[in-house]
Write a structure and sequence with these properties.
Elements lengths: L1 E5 H4 L2 H11 L10 H9 L5 E6 L4 H16 L3 E6 L2
Parallel strand pairs: 1-2, 2-3
Length: about 80
Amino acid sequence: MLVLCDFARLGTPDAVYDYLSEELQLPPYFGRNLDALHDCLTDVGAPTRLILTGVSSPCGEHFVRVFKDAARRNKYLSVEIHEG
């Protein structure tokens, strides 16, 4: 699975959570916070490639650490960061 996440376009954490919930088919109990996102990302069981853009936006800065750490812990998850 390939997921493109443009934080500059999405603009708010709520929009990011909505987008990721749909694209990654997160479970209904997803708590819509960074800890819950981390837990869900570390549970991904199929090869998933996340391409992140706009990470220097105020919204993106909060998520990058979570994505990177989850990718270190989950062999099925890879994260690429593209600026510009």
